[in-house]
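user: can you give me the structure for this one chain? tokens are fine.
assistant: on it. calling the predictor now.
[tool input]
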Amino acid sequence: MLALVALTSEPLTDEVVEGVRAADPRALEAVYVALSGPLLNWLHSQTGDRDRAADLTDETFLELVRDCRSIEGGLQSLRAWLFRAARRNLIDDARRLSRRPRVVANRAPETVDGDPLPDERAAASDTAARVRRLVAALPPDQREVVTMRYLADLSTKEVALATDRSEVAVRALAFRGTRALAKRLGGSVAVAADELGVGA
């Protein structure tokens, strides 16, 4: 019997992955609770649109429910499968959007913050907006790897599986991307990693 507590972010185990393969609703829920946030954040970093990212996240998890019995391997394989599916959905969505006229809304960038003082909130918002702009300015392959690696917290192996690249290529792209961010931020790679919120 799979012992899961509903709606908690307990660490995922290979037992949960086995439950996913068996289409156990509790295992699928556990995966959703644990990975929907990182997946949503990564998709948001790629689209710049929270609502679109949420739709793509939902689409990806629906795909997981449909295809869960075909997942092979352990936890790393499941995480990689999920991000690879999200990446395909993102590419398909971008193609759909490119085929229709686009209306650009004039609105402030979205930020996520707690209850700091207004000056602190403004400074944090400025920093977050600056980092988002710098990440968005990276070449697409570096942006994809940097955001999967540091914002979604995937391992190098999981990013490699999700993007159909070798681990060496992923490490090289992550290095080049964080080095470019560091230059633009006027600091070291450690400063760039800190601005991404991950530490070095």
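assistant: here you go. Residues 75-98 form the longest helix (24 residues). Residues 14-98 form a domain with the Rna Polymerase Sigma Factor; Chain: A fold (CATH 1.10.1740.10).
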